Amino acid sequence: MKKQDVVVVGGGFGGVKACLELSKHSAFRVTLVANKPFFEYYPMMYHTAAGGSKTVSSIPLGEIFKDKRINIIIDEATKLNRKDKTITLKNGQTIEYKALILSLGSITNYYNIDGIAEYSYGIKSLHDAEKLRKHLHDNLQDPIHREDRYMVIGGGPTGIEIASALPGYIKHLRKKHGVRGRGQPKVELVEAGPRLLARMPHSVSRALSRRLRKLGVKLIFQKPVQSESADTLLLGGKQITTKTVIWTAGVANNPFFKQNKFIMSDNGKVKVDQALQAWPGIFVIGDNADTEYSGMAQTALHDAVFVANNLIRHTEGEEPLKYKPKKPVHVIPVGKRWAMVAWGNLHFYGRLGWLVRKAADWIGYRDIEPWWKATNRAMSDTQLEDECLICATKVNQA
Ligand SMILES: Cc1cc2nc3c(=O)[nH]c(=O)nc-3n(C[C@H](O)[C@H](O)[C@H](O)COP(=O)(O)OP(=O)(O)OC[C@H]3O[C@@H](n4cnc5c(N)ncnc54)[C@H](O)[C@@H]3O)c2cc1C
Fold first, then answer.
1. 68: nearest Cα among 370, 383, 375
2. Which of 104, 164, 165, 393 has the fewest Cβ atoms surrounding its Cβ within 10 A?
């Protein structure tokens, strides 16, 4: 039987899961085009940025697909030719497909605010997290220009996660770098709206605000960010001196879709039909697709399994199934051993929430690797890895 060429673009949640599902079936020849050689597990990126091990937030694609029949190409897809059914890569290579699955994820949106793209930090990739971590160490190593005010922008899950991890990490770094007598680090979380997690009930916002304040995070509401320079942030008309602005306040769809003339919804996501097709044979999944719960890893995984299953059904002469969105569970860690869980109408907090979060991470890893590897990975969240010269020397001396 002739194998069907399926090309998957994007080595994130949706793309990796789609490849794993299709690799179980001998009818397909699967090519994965990924612009990075590793998969990024975003839910733990805040942890890596705050000194945690990189193994919890990134996994080499070669490791995930070891012993799997997947052809991996590390490059960026740039151009789609629907008529010829080909996709062109940055290096000029053109690949033919019978079915194409696009799962390119979202990009950071800086809303054209002056200086933000240039000077702010983020945690949208491993590179971002490492850059932020290095900056935190460098800042403490500079006794003259050291600036002890850390501004996190965006009162959504990512902003809450990183803001809650910073006070503890900065105190830990101060100790390692021998910086004394400075009181509580000034970590401030800025939200342009009136409360945290605007889409959740008010009681959830209140509980998270209380928890963050307890951890030493100051909350600033209804103050829009106006501009940033190398050492200042203009916020609600007031100039703040800071060298650390962490931008978590916006995402936008991947520009690939606009460049390749996909039909978009008003929210900037790609319009898809009930089979998640944007065009015959072209499936768009995860953050890119305009589905009810788009924007969550759980949705990308669900979409990938759905599309792969329909492709398998097709080879077996069965009718495709219709897409049913799956409501995700929201679990937001806020400081050590504390998390908020929103499971349907049920909300709970604290250590029990933390246990749910640990289980969710294990399931997240388990979705893409065998259970024993997932268990090791989930357990390595207690390891710290500070590579800066001062910290490394202290570790060696200890
Ligand atoms: C900090 C953070 C924390 C999060 N926490 C949670 C959480 O706790 N729970 C949850 O459910 N969701 C969470 N999310 C959201 C979740 O990570 C996304 O919804 C999910 O990653 C979407 O999966 P995807 O496959 O659509 O995109 P991604 O996982 O982003 O994968 C897209 C991949 O495609 C690559 N790519 C982009 N363009 C190209 C190109 N032209 N050619 C080749 N490759 C390309 C990208 O580099 C990336 O590797 C979080 C997101 C962030 C940023």
1. 370
2. 393
Higher pLDDT, 227 or 3: 227
3.50.50.60, 3.30.2350.10, 2.40.50.180, 3.40.228.10: CATH of 4-35+75-108+251-328: 3.50.50.60
Ligand 1 lined by 13 (C-beta under 6 Å): yes
Q: What predicted TM-score, i.e. pTM, was given to this entire model?
A: 0.95
Top CATH class of 116-249+331-397 equals alpha beta
Joined together, the tokens standing for residue 311 give: 């492709």
Distance 282 CA to ligand 1 centre (A): 19
Q: Which two tokens stand for residue 72?
A: 């991996």
Bin 344: left if φ > 0, else alpha if -120 < ψ < 50, else beta.
left
Name the percent of the chain lying above pLDDT 70. 98
In this chain, the answer to whether the domains covering 4-35+75-108+251-328 and 116-249+331-397 adopt an identical fold is yes
Is the CB of 158 within 6 Å of ligand 1?
yes
